[in-house]
Amino acid sequence: MNTTNLTDLVNYQYGTEKIFDKAEDFLPIYGTDYVELYVGNAKQAAHYYKTAFGFQSLAYAGLETGAKDYTSYVLKQDKIRLVLTCPLKSNNLISEHIKKHGDGVKVIALWVDDARKAFEETTKRGARVFFEPRVEQDENGEVVRAGIHTYGETAHIFVERKNYRGLFLPSYVKWESEYNPTPTGLKYIDHMVGNVELGGMNKWAEFYAKVMGFANLITFDDKDISTQYTALMSKVMTNGNGRIKFPINEPAAGLKKSQIEEYLDFYEGPGCQHIAVATDDIVYTVSEMRKRGVEFLFVPGTYYDTVADRVGNISEELEILKTLGIMVDRDEDGYLLQIFTKPVEDRPTMFFEIIQRKGARSFGKGNFQALFESIEAEQERRGTL
């Protein structure tokens, strides 16, 4: 694929915004290529994400395709690709990962123009090798992939697709399924949040700055993100074109166990806390997901008593937002609407955020108090606060 075609493909994937002004960004990233979760039963997990979130069947790898020790189902909704992978035997690394962490994010794959160069640039700056560049081929061309480690047992894989016209990756086949519920309006991954141990936030913020050329977009301290009982600190790291945003959270001292400490206890180490997915119509998306059984955090009704004073005029009807539990916040660029699911597995670990941005570039600082009180109420019911 030539450069012009690649530019066209990126514009198709991400709209007409020009993102090829690479500036001083030594690691240009075009977007999130896919997110891979290690799960205990990929077939059942795929059914859940199709039913509840509106994902569609895309591709499959397993015994029938030559994979001897794992099965993977690939789901797609607009620009989001989820890969759900489970082991076929007990004695492999996937099994060990699930035994320790439960279901969770293993790989955050990043779409690049040159995977070999991305690997070289990051490893020479100190990244630990997950796997060295490899070329994967089939009748549709070739994909080059290479991987590095990040916090905990999470990995980044660089994916180069410019010479590939296939469905997903070589060794995957089309996943034929008669069951494809309608999408819920999810568009793309807005950001992904990592929880790290006490003292780890600055270490991993420095990793993204030094190793991957990211910048610190915003920092929240324990005065910004706290309640009567718990607190946390966060640094939001972003790449050169702003397509990739990784908030890094660590616990802060409080009277009781924070949500970050609860996550670290049950995930048994650092990992991806939540995936924020964007929509153009959050009222429709959340209404659909509620009908399909997705559980969201409860927002106290008193939260909405001051929303109008705090955020000013918005297009949505406040009573509808209150009914659905959607929160609103404003910054100097506009406003955003957001809501958080409860954990999507039995361990109180990973969850999803649904977000709609109407100009705002921030992360809902004005909602932190209500959000954390809601999370603490869930922790109290679990007996982990």
The neighbouring-strand order within the major sheet is 6-7-8-5-1-4-3-2-9
How many helical stretches? 10
Residues in helix, %: 25-40%
Q: What Rg do the Cα atoms give?
A: 20 Å
What is the rounded distance between the termini? 53 Å
Structural class: alpha+beta
E-strand count: 17
**How much of the sequence is in beta strands?**
25-35%
Largest sheet: 9 strands, mixed
User: What are the segments in which pLDDT stays under 50 over at least 5 consecutive residues?
Assistant: 1-24
Q: Tell me, what's the shape?
A: globular
Helix and strand pattern: HEHEEEHEHEEEEEHEEEHEHHHEEEH
Mean pLDDT: 88
Give a structural overview:
With 385 residues, this protein is an alpha+beta fold. It is 26% helix and 33% strand. The chain has ten helices and 17 strands. The strands form two sheets. Strands 6-7-8-5-1-4-3-2-9 form a nine-stranded mixed sheet. An eight-stranded mixed sheet has the order 11-12-13-10-14-17-16-15. A hairpin with a 2-residue loop joins strand 3 and strand 4. It is globular. The N terminus is likely disordered.
Short overview:
The chain has 385 residues and is α+β, with helices and mostly antiparallel strands. 26% of the residues lie in helices and 33% in strands.
List the helices and strands and how they pair.
Blueprint: H1 3-14, E1 31-38, H2 42-53, E2 56-61, E3 70-77, E4 80-87, H3 93-101, E5 104-112, H4 115-124, E6 129-138, E7 141-149, E8 155-160, E9 173-174, E10 186-195, H5 200-210, E11 215-220, E12 231-238, E13 245-252, H6 259-267, E14 271-279, H7 282-291, H8 307-311, H9 318-324, E15 327-331, E16 334-340, E17 351-358, H10 368-382
Parallel strand pairs: 1-4, 5-8, 10-13, 14-17
Antiparallel strand pairs: 1-5, 2-3, 2-9, 3-4, 6-7, 7-8, 10-14, 11-12, 12-13, 15-16, 16-17
